[in-house]
């Protein structure tokens, strides 16, 4: 039951049909010159159809010299108005409000990527890039404030219901708010009243120019660092904003100035649900205007608890809506299908950082919303495929995604799993600390496939005869991968997969060398350090776990460092003599004492069943890791697209 989430509410002049608001998240679905596209309109329209009461669209740069990403939206010129008007219309047709977020990145602008000059309240260095930051002159401050006013006017002309100023997460307004960065000695520095002056003056300028345009402000309740501003400062800022006519406060946390602090903005699974609630409550209690809270609100009960505790008046959903556009309607019981849960892997945020379009591990169809809805939720399709008999070998991630999609299209689906339980590598994936929330990426698919009529049989060794007897029209081979073997003179390495499943394979107190510093290598290292083993990681590349989202990687690396883990990059092991492991690091010979060696050097496709499949002469397709080992995103996309293609490739 979600009575509090479903209750209507009021923000300024607007009545909201429920307490759920889509948080602003970049997509990189725009054009290279900052225009809205059919792709981002379809993306937002689907979330509006999914049931949120309001959508805060992604941050738009107000100045020509202040862009966030290569394909992010811009609003510094009137030519952007028509596209934004079409965007607003696509949202409004689903009884959903549109709020446009305006931003200037200030010191976090990037010379290397976008040739933008980093500017801020005081001379500084961007920790992410090392770029020098130039202090803004007073006339430049005034010019930026005018940019915000003219940008707000363009939102108003485009038909937006409200405007939100982004004063959180380490961008220009927050740079002025924090004494860590703001060292000015003029009227924009010093006391909290002075540090808030840029934001308050901008609010007043917008209110003067557009008195009937509702104004929201997003702030970070805390910076999560010792020299950051105290909560008392943000309570004072909140009261000033309320007095200035702001109608809602959108509460976030952290700052994107470095990976260590960014993980508090886009939290990894190690952080608790409702992680910002304790920091938001003092602000909510201090003001009379509505507050909106974000921060690892994954399930409906998380949002219900925030509202029941009086910690906020509305709930902000970001990654949860990336994973499932229909989260609200499913939470309210309007759609019987369970919510596709966000697993906080942060691939969505990482792709933006790498200047790619946003993607979601658990939602492989994200970004294709301009296609028919039944491609993402095939069970909702008005038509069904001509039923065919599909046999899937393997009940892991790829196998169950293919089973879900094929069964939803109306095919007769049976899954054969060689082991005595389904799941494949998911059991290894959730064995690492703080990874249990990854399980729904598989279990949701398993449960949905069964609900849609697919059958799963375990303990089945597929043979050519048994497959011929089953008489499928098509076979999907989803048998996954196996660990890549490591030959090392003087030692017989254990495989990381085996150690994750049974850490006791490594003796207590052992000195362990983990060969391979990818995701699996780091996770097996943490499992061992938590059990008292002393771990050294050797990685042949210059970077550890580059496939891992940097917020999550940073979080894990900090824990490993605290545990005393040693790291060696550009390192290659050569041999073990007694208890001495010989290796090279950046070409220089090195040694370390070891009692055990664990191999984590990747995976190769497991195609042991392929000869039996080929002997049937039945058409087949390799999918997932059996096709090409990858991460959850690549595996699920491959399985999903292949299952949809069955409609086209099977004979009538």
Description:
By secondary structure, the protein is of the alpha/beta class. It is 34% helix and 19% strand. It is built from 24 helices and 28 strands. Strands 3-4-5-9-10-11-12-13 form an eight-stranded parallel beta barrel, surrounded by seven helices. A five-stranded parallel β-sheet has the order 16-15-14-17-28, with helices on both faces. A five-stranded parallel β-sheet has the order 19-26-20-21-22. Helix 16 (397-408) packs parallel to helix 18 and helix 21 (519-529) packs parallel to helix 22 (550-562). The longest helix is centred in the N-terminal third of the chain and has 21 residues, at 138-158. The protein is globular. The mean pLDDT is 94.
**Strand sequence of the main sheet, in spatial order?**
3-4-5-9-10-11-12-13
Mean pLDDT: 94
What is the straight-line distance between the termini? 45 Å
Describe the main β-sheet briefly.
8 strands, parallel, barrel
Strand content: 15-25%
Helix-strand category? alpha/beta
Proportion of helical residues: 25-40%
Q: How would you describe the shape?
A: globular
Q: Can you tell me the residue ranges where pLDDT is under 50 for at least 5 consecutive residues? A: none
Q: State the assembly state of the protein chains.
A: single chain
Q: What's the alpha carbon Rg, rounded to whole Å?
A: 26 Å
Tally the beta strands: 28
Tally of helical runs: 24
């Amino acid at each position: 039951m979600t009575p509090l989430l479903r209750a209507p509410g009021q923000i300024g002049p607007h009545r909201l049909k429920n307490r759920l608001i889509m948080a602003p998240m970049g997509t990189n679905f725009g054009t290279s010159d900052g225009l809205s596209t059919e792709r981002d309109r379809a993306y937002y329209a689907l979330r509006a159809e999914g049931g949120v009461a309001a959508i805060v669209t992604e941050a738009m740069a107000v100045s020509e010299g202040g862009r966030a990403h290569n394909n992010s939206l811009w609003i510094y010129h009137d030519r952007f108005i028509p596209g934004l008007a079409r965007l607003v219309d696509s949202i409004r047709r689903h009884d959903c409000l549109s709020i446009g977020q305006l931003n200037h990145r200030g010191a976090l602008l990037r010379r290397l990527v976008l040739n933008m000059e980093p500017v801020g309240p005081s001379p500084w260095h961007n920790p992410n890039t090392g770029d020098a930051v130039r202090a803004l002159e007073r006339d430049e401050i005034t010019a930026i404030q005018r940019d915000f006013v003219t940008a707000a006017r363009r939102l108003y002309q485009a038909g937006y219901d409200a405007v939100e100023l982004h004063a959180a997460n380490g961008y220009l307004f927050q740079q002025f708010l924090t004494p860590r960065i703001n060292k000015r000695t003029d009227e924009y520095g010093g006391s909290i009243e002075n540090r808030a002056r840029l934001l308050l003056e901008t609010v007043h300028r917008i209110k003067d120019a557009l008195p009937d345009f509702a104004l929201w402000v997003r702030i970070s309740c805390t910076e999560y660092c010792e020299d950051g501003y105290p909560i008392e400062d943000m309570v004072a800022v909140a009261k000033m904003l309320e007095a200035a006519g702001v109608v809602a406060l959108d509460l976030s946390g952290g700052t994107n100035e470095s990976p260590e602090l960014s993980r508090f903005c886009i939290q990894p699974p190690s952080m608790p649900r409702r992680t910002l609630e304790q920091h938001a409550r003092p602000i909510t209690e201090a003001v009379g205007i509505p507050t909106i809270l974000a921060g690892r609100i994954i399930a409906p009960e998380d949002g219900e608890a925030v509202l029941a505790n009086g910690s906020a008046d509305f709930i902000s959903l970001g990654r949860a809506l990336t994973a499932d556009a229909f989260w609200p309607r499913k939470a309210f019981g309007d759609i019987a299908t369970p919510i596709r849960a966000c697993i906080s892997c942060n691939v969505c945020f990482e792709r933006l950082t790498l200047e790619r379009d946003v993607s979601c591990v658990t939602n492989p169809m994200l970004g294709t919303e301009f296609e028919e809805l039944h491609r993402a939720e095939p069970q909702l399709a008005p038509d069904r495929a001509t039923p065919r008999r599909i046999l899937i070998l393997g009940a892991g991630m790829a196998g169950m995604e293919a089973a879900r999609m094929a069964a939803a299209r109306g095919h007769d689906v049976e899954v054969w799993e060689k082991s005595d339980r389904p799941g494949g590598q998911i059991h290894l994936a959730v064995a690492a600390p703080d990874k249990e929330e990854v399980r729904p990426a598989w279990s949701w698919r398993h449960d949905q496939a069964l609900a849609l009529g697919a059958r799963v049989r375990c303990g089945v060794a597929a043979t050519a005869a048994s497959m011929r007897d089953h008489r499928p029209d098509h076979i999907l081979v989803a048998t996954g991968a196996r660990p890549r073997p490591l030959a090392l003179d003087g030692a017989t390495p254990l495989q990381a997969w085996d150690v994750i499943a049974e850490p006791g394979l490594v003796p207590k107190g052992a000195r362990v060398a983990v060969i391979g510093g990818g995701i699996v290598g780091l996770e097996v290292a943490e499992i061992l350090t938590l059990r008292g083993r002393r771990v050294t990681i050797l990685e042949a590349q210059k970077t550890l776990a580059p496939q891992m989202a940097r917020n999550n990687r940073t979080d894990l690396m900090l824990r490993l460092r605290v545990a005393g883990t040693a790291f060696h990059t550009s390192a290659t092991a050569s041999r073990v003599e007694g208890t001495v492991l010989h290796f090279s690091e950046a070409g220089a010979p090195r040694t370390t004492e070891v009692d055990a060696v664990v191999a984590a050097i990747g995976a190769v496709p497991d195609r042991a069943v392929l000869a039996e499949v080929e002997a049937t002469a039945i058409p087949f397709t390799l999918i997932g890791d059996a096709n090409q080992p990858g991460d959850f995103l690549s595996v699920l996309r491959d399985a999903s697209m292949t299952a949809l293609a069955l409609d086209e490739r099977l004979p009538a």
